[in-house]
Amino acid sequence: MSRSLKKGPYVDEKLMKKVGARKPSGGAIKTWARASQIAPEFVGYTFLVHKGKDFEEVFVTEDMVGHRLGEFAPTTKFIKHGGKMQKEAEMAAKAAEVAAAQAAKATADAKK
Predict the structure, then answer these.
(1) How buried is 69 (Cβ within 10 angstroms: 0-12 exposed, 13-18 middle, 19+ buried)?
(2) What's the CATH architecture for 13-72?
(3) What is the pTM (predicted TM-score) of this model?
(4) 43 vs 65: CA distance, rounded Å
(5) Measured between alpha carbons, how far is 31 from 24 in angstroms, rounded to an integer?
(6) pLDDT digits (tens, 9 = 90+) for 31-45
(7) Where are the domains of the chain?
(8) pLDDT, position 1
(9) Which of 2, 18, 49, 101 has the fewest CB atoms below 10 angstroms from its CB?
């Protein structure tokens, strides 16, 4: 849900103060302000965004301006769906990957 245009974007004041006092190469900035929008001043900085238990490292680029910090630090971890069919598909994919790696190694050894 977007904010009213008359209110402007929400950027946490404490976070803005931390960014103003630090250089982009000065290490990561730890924050709990997941709802804070990414301002153009944040580009080039690395943030440690709290995700409930630990912190996710987020490097801000120009494409992220206008989004929220919390969008780049997911709080839930997807385990997987499926049962027997999913497991069989994963095993086939893994076997194909191993076969491709062995073939690449064999061609590399043959060139020597």
Answers:
(1) buried
(2) 2-Layer Sandwich (3.30)
(3) 0.66
(4) 8
(5) 15
(6) 999 999 999 999 999
(7) 13-72, 80-112
(8) 57
(9) 2
